[in-house]
Amino acid sequence: MTTNVLILCTHNSARSVLGEAMLNHLAAKLGKDVRAFSAGSTPSGRINPLAIDALTQAGIDVSGYRSKSWDEFAQDRAPHMRIVITVCDSAAAEACPFWPGSPVKVHWGYADPSNAPGGDEGKRQAFGLTRQAIGYRMLQLLALPMDSLSNAELQQALNDILQS
Question: Which of 18, 46, 69, 102 has its CA 20 to 30 A from that of 115?
Fold first, then answer.
């Protein structure tokens, strides 16, 4: 059974898209039945070009990704999520919609790479480092025996990943 993961950030233009793309890429590479989605509470309507660059430079296909509202995933016909991950502090502080299926929720915060100092080069480097940091946690998530974990065990495992 596919494990669906929703990754949230306020604008769904950088960190959440990096998470979605990294998790989908790594799951496919490892043969894991995991599917990632991303969304935002107030989507910008576009993906930050530096996020696209960071993914492309890592050899990840970026076709089909778009900035979208979390409302798409709160509807009855939406895929049921097993896990919801917030990756920015503002999204973590917002009142999220009701997610069908009562998914496990965790906050794995990352600094906004678009606010990095050092001009365009500093931002480009920050996007690459953020992609790597997110990818590392996604690898840890994919190592979990998700099909055999209860929601309480999964919650603990996701919290443990945050501490590592």
Answer: 69
CA distances from 113 to 8, 33, 56, 83, 123 (A): 16, 29, 16, 24, 6
**pLDDT (mean) for 149-161:** 97
Q: What is the pLDDT of residue 90?
A: 65
> Model pTM?
0.94
Find the catalytic residue in 62, 96, 111, 129.
96
Instruction: Give the model confidence (pLDDT) of 109-134 as tens digits.
Output: 999 999 999 999 999 999 999 999 99
- Told to judge if 88 belongs to the known catalytic residues of this protein, a careful annotator would answer yes
- What is the per-residue pLDDT for 102? 84
Residue 96 annotated in active site: yes
